[in-house]
């Protein structure tokens, strides 16, 4: 018997915060001639709700505001207003564990490369997203292919904005990896150095130290920053530096970090193999406790 397909993201029950008010999920639409659709003048965030609260909400909201400024527009809501709107949307949809997607974009008043007079819109959507994997399941590690596309140089695109256009090569890379049976892809940068996965930062354990690429041409992820702090609290040495792909042969453990990935061990990147171990296990446990302190305290 065939299983019914899950509803698309355009056809769900619930409420979305849209330009200052909560509206029915299905009516939260924009015009086909919106500038963002044609010219990628759009910024967004990915956030997780744990036990009814967003992890690092203020940091995410501030990055949304900063990304918009890099893209040449100002979101017409303050940091406090964005935080309040996020919490109101979570409450209105009765989300306990879920995902939050704030998105800001240029509208449809002008159509062309120039869009000086376009209205700036902001929407916030939330949906249920529980944690699906046990620690032991995670510790098996995921498999990454090597991406063909590379992270561009800082003088070619706004690399430090979480902007929609920067994810085009991520989609292309992840699709190709999945078609080949992998879970994701590792991207190099314009210099041929290790950069990141398609939506997560990457770390390697080498000689008992944690090594990670310096984020000079890609996002310094909020989860990345949090996990580095957790590792240092454990007296683990963290080295941020340029990493060449052949150096992965020296790594014993590897993991990625991100809002969706959280802390996810990696067992394979192209020809390189890793065995998720104590570092991965420790940081997964520390991250789990950090994002849901009430649950951790109860246990």
Helix and strand run = EEHEEEHHEEHEHEEEEHEEEEHH
Number of helices: 8
CATH topology of the largest domain: D-amino Acid Aminotransferase, Chain A, domain 2
Termini distance? 41 Å
Q: Give the structural class.
A: alpha+beta
Nearest-integer average pLDDT? 95
The biggest sheet amounts to: 9 strands, mixed
Uncertain regions spanning at least 5 consecutive residues: none
Quantity of strands, as a count: 16
Helix percentage: 25-40%
Q: Give the assembly state of these chains.
A: single chain
CATH superfamily of the largest domain: D-amino Acid Aminotransferase, subunit A, domain 2
Strand content: 25-35%
CATH architecture classification of the largest domain: Alpha-Beta Barrel
Explain what the structure shows:
- The model has no long low-confidence stretch (mean pLDDT 95).
- The chain has helices at residues 35-39, 57-70, 79-92, 135-138, 168-179, 222-233, 278-291, 293-298, and strands at 15-18, 21-24, 42-44, 47-50, 53-54, 98-106, 120-128, 142-146, 184-188, 194-197, 201-206, 209-213, 238-241, 253-258, 262-269, 272-273.
- It has two domains: 15-128, D-amino Acid Aminotransferase, Chain A, domain 1; 135-295, Alpha-Beta Barrel (D-amino Acid Aminotransferase, Chain A, domain 2), CATH 3.20.10.
- The protein is an alpha+beta fold and 299 residues long.
- α2 (57-70) crosses α3.
- The longest helix is centred in the first third of the chain and has 14 residues, at 57-70.
- The protein is globular.
- The strands form two sheets. Strands 8, 9, 10, 11, 12, 13, 14, 15 and 16 form a nine-stranded mixed beta sheet that branches. Strands 1, 2, 3, 4, 5, 6 and 7 form a seven-stranded antiparallel beta sheet that branches.
- The chain contains eight helices and 16 strands.
- Helix content is 27%, strand content 27%.
